[in-house]
C-alpha cells in the first residue's frame, strides 16, 4: 500500500531538489515576477475558486457536502500542476522560449505552494475554529501561510549559502567521493531542519537546490559536478516513475467512492479556476512586460494545467473523517489526474500545431538561443554551462565589466558570486582537466578489460 509518509520523506524531496538544482537560473530570474505571480497568487486563486465552489455547491445539495476547511484543502491539493508532458512537447516543437519558461517556472514553485496551502488547511482543521469568525480564520490562515512560505524559503536559502561557504573554504576536490557525500548531506539537511521546526521541508529544499546550483556547484571538482548532475537526474526520474506506478496501482489498491456529479463539477471548477488564474494575471502582467503574453500563449498556459503525482499523494495524506469522505476525495483526485494527463496532455501537440505557436523557430535563427533548462538534453554527460571553468580574469571580463547588469543581477555578479564561489586559477583549471582525463582513461581501460580483455590487450601490444 502506498504510504503518504514514504512519499513525503523518500520520493518527493529528490524530485523537488532536482527541479531547483537543474533550473536555468538566468532565464528563471528574468521572469521571476511573472512566475511568482502565477505560482503563488495564481495557485491561491485557483485553490479559493475550487474550494469555494465545492463548499457552496455542497451547501446547495448539488454535490456531497464538505466543510470549509476540507473544501479548501481539496482545492489546494488539486491546484498543483505537473506539466511534464507539455514541457517535453514544448522542447520538441521549439515553442516561444518565454512561454516555455513561464510554464516550467510556474510548475517548479507551484508544487511547493500547493503543499504549503494544503498544510495550512490541515492546520486549521486540527484547531477548534468554531468560536472564530470568518475574518479571523482568514487572517490566521494567511499568517500561517506567510510563515511557512517565507520561513521555509529563508531556511533553504541559508542552508544553501552555508554549503557554498563550507565547500569554498574546505577543499575536497581531490576526494570526489567525500565531496559528493557532503553535497548529499547538504541537499537533505534543509528538509529535516524545516520539518523539525514545523516549516515546509519541500519549500526549503527547493530554494536550497536553487542556491546550491548557483553557488555551491561551482566550488566542486569537475568530476563531482558531473556526478551530482547525473545522480540527481537518475534518482528524480526513478522517484517520479515510482509515484506514477503507485498512481496506476492505486486504482485497484483501495476502495473507491465514485460520485458522478462531484467528479464533473470538480473538473469544471478545476478548469475554471485555472482560467481565472491565467487570463486576468496575464493581462495584468502585460502592462509591465516588454515581451507580451499573447492570447495564444495564455490559452496554451491554461491548457497545460495538468495534474500529476503530488495531488494524488496529498489526497492520501489528508486526515479526513469519516472514511467515505477521504475515499471520495481520493477517487476524484485520481480521475482528475487521469483526465488531465490523457485528454489535455494528449491534445497539446495537435493544439500547438493548430494554433501555430511554433513561430519562435524563425526568431531563433536571428537571436541568441535560449536554453530553458539544464535537463533539456538529458543525454549530454558534460554540459559546459554547468561546469565551473571561469578563471578570475575570465570572470571579470565576462561579467563584471558588462554595463547592462542592474538590480539583483548586478549585486550578485559584483559581490555575492565572488564571496560564495571559488574563482579558479589556471593551475586549478589544469588540474581539473587532468583529473577528468585520468578518470576517462581509467573508465575506458576498465571497459576494455571485459571477458575478452586480455585478448584486446594482446592485440594492442602487437
Automatic annotation (TrEMBL):
The record gives the membrane topology as: Multi-pass membrane protein
Q: Which residues form the Cation/H+ exchanger transmembrane domain?
A: 4-352
Per the record, what is one GO cellular component? Golgi membrane
Superkingdom per UniProt: Eukaryota
Signal peptide segment: 1-22
Keyword line? Antiport, Golgi apparatus, Ion transport, Membrane, Signal, Sodium, Sodium transport, Transmembrane, Transmembrane helix, Transport
What Gene Ontology biological process does one annotation of this record name? regulation of intracellular pH
Q: Where in the cell is it found?
A: Golgi apparatus membrane
What are the protein's GO molecular function terms?
potassium:proton antiporter activity; sodium:proton antiporter activity
Q: What sections of the protein cross the membrane?
A: 32-58, 70-93, 144-167, 197-215, 235-254, 260-285, 297-314, 334-355
PANTHER family linked: SODIUM/HYDROGEN EXCHANGER, SODIUM_HYDROGEN EXCHANGER 8
NCBIfam families attached to this UniProt entry: b_cpa1
| Record family assignment | Belongs to the monovalent cation:proton antiporter 1 (CPA1) transporter (TC 2.A.36) family.
**Annotated protein name in UniProt:** Sodium/hydrogen exchanger
